[in-house]
Amino acid sequence: MGFVDLVFGCSHKKLSFPITVRRAREATQAASLTGTYVVCLDCGREFPYDWKEMKVVRGSTSASPAGLAAEPRRA
User: Fold this and answer.
1) Residue 64 has what pLDDT?
2) 4 phi, psi to nearest 5 deg
3) Bridge-partner residues for 36, per DSSP?
4) Which of 1, 15, 39, 41 is the most buried (most CB within 10 A)?
């Protein structure tokens, strides 16, 4: 983690291809909203993704994707 990340945090500009969870019990917090999520390739945070709108879904707790911190995936 660099100095800029410590001060400003991650901008979440590099996102993975959307991942759809088939089993509900394996769903992460981000996938529980839509069943699909994307991951920031820089910091590892997960964000809900809507296939119909083709974009990251804004959560009810925050107005920006940066505030949608998800719990790490459990094995």
Assistant:
1) 41
2) -65, -40
3) 20
4) 39
Distance (Å, rounded) from C-alpha 69 to C-alpha 30?
Answer: 8
> 14-29 pLDDT, tens per residue?
999 998 887 766 667 7
- DSSP string covering the chain: --HHHHHH-----SBPPPEE-SSGGG--TTHHHHSEEEEBTTT--EEEEETTTTEEPPPSS-SSGGG---PPPP-
- Structure tokens given for 12: 């979440």
pLDDT at residue number 39: 93
